Amino acid sequence: MTQLAPDKEIVINGLWKDNPIFRQVLGICSTLAVTNVVLNTAVMCTSLTLVTAASCLTVSLLRHWTPRNIRMMVQTLIIAFYVIIVDLILKAYWPEMSNQLGPYVGLIITNCIIMGRCEAFAGSNPPVSSFWDGLFSGLGYSLILLGISVMRELLGMGTVLGFAMPYFSNPDYWDKWIIMVMPPGAFFALACMIWLCRSIKPKEVKK
Amino acid sequence: MNSFGYEIWLAMVTCFAAVFTQNILLTTFLGMCPFTSVSREVKTAAGLGGAVVFVMTCTTAINYWAYKLLIYLDLEFFRFILFIIIIAAFVQFVEMVIDRYSPKLYQSLGIFLPLITVNCAILGASLFMVIREYHFIQTIGYGFGAGLGWMLAILAMAGIRTRLNESRVPEGLRGPGITLIIAGLMALAFIGFTGVLS
């Protein structure tokens, strides 16, 4: 019997317990650079989540036919295939966004999370649960990055999704932290995020 | 100034920019995974850095011509797959050559080579080369500079982290957290170079 609904454990693991970012610190390369604006991050995270879910599904479907020693190559090609689809869709329907994201859409291919999930989970599990696993890992990843991007855009420009925020956009109350929009801001924001999440964790264990 | 001399000059400027003002790690965040995991010791960081410089210079040069071929065939969307395959094949090839002719070098460099295939910085350099429309000589300068910049950053980080062992870091910030904070400070320092080229 295959169940279609996601397992509760997979959801919790993907979103929190094994969260790709603050548990494993993987795959931040391709997405961190676009976290200075919330909209870009949202598009990037959506593409990443879709690619992760789809490639986990495919890898899992093909797992019995893939020879062990070339599986890395096969996985890379599957991921690249989906990334190309996403890239073409963006180019066709949202050229401005495609320009802004620049090479980062292509860099989803080398994002370690996708490879990690394919290798660790999809390679040895049935398709449906692999799909959910990929989806929720992607969502867990997106959650953190969206948090970072909201923090950066709010502190750095006083806006969220381009809308001015009441307190932060008023120059009388709030001096914009330009540093948050620049590259160092991303490092600091991510470090704070990891710190925050890791500090919350031990309390939960004690309960 | 003749045109070839000008090309060389451009390549040198691009190389300098790639090392300092547009450092591939500190301004575009590429190659973060090995950066946080392999930066514990200066020696291993130097080994990995050297391998990255070499592979990046060669693969961007090869990918330049590969992309030219794709444009000719009108198959540009195919570039992700082609670049990845070229990088993987090149790394494998280099690994075999080193293993055959210089076992000593293989021992110090060889273990890092497989890691490089999944290093986003390598693919990123090729993609940037395409987007910024570099010429061939400029591409070589860029590939070399980007690799050098990455090596510089990871070496500095490894040096700092060995000192970090003796300092007291807050519980939740240990490991990756503090590494990122230091990377942020380094990025801040590198912003100082921004005005050098204009």
Kindly estimate the percentage of residues of chain B that lie in beta strands according to DSSP.
under 5%
When the domains of chain A are counted, the total is 1
Oligomer: heterodimer
Question: Which structural category fits the helices and strands of chain A?
Answer: mainly alpha
Give a summary of the structure in a few sentences:
With 207 residues, chain A is mostly helical. Helices cover 66% and strands 2% of the residues of chain A. Chain A has one domain (8-206).
Can you walk me through this structure?
Chain A has one domain (8-206). Helix content of chain A is 66%, strand content 2%. Chain A is built from 9 helices and 2 strands; from the N terminus they run αααααααββαα. In chain A, strands 1-2 form a two-stranded antiparallel ribbon. The radius of gyration of chain A is 18 Å and the shape is globular. The mean pLDDT of chain A is 79. Chain B has helices at residues 3-19, 32-37, 42-73, 79-101, 103-109, 113-117, 120-131, 136-164, 176-191. Chain B is an all-alpha fold and 198 residues long. Helix content of chain B is 74%, strand content 0%. Chain B starts with a helix and ends in a 7-residue tail after the last helix. Chain B contains 9 helices and no strands. The mean pLDDT of chain B is 83. Chain B has one domain (7-192). In chain B, α1 (3-19) packs parallel to α8 (136-164) and α3 (42-73) runs antiparallel to α8. Classes of the chains: A mainly alpha (207), B mainly alpha (198). The A-B interface holds A 22, 25-30, 32-33, 73, 76-77, 80-81, 83-84, 87-88, 102-103, 106-107, 109-112, 115, 179, 182-188, 190-191, 194-199 and B 26-33, 36-37, 77-81, 84, 88, 118-121, 123-124, 127-128, 130-131, 170-173, 175-178, 180-181, 183-185, 187-188, 191.
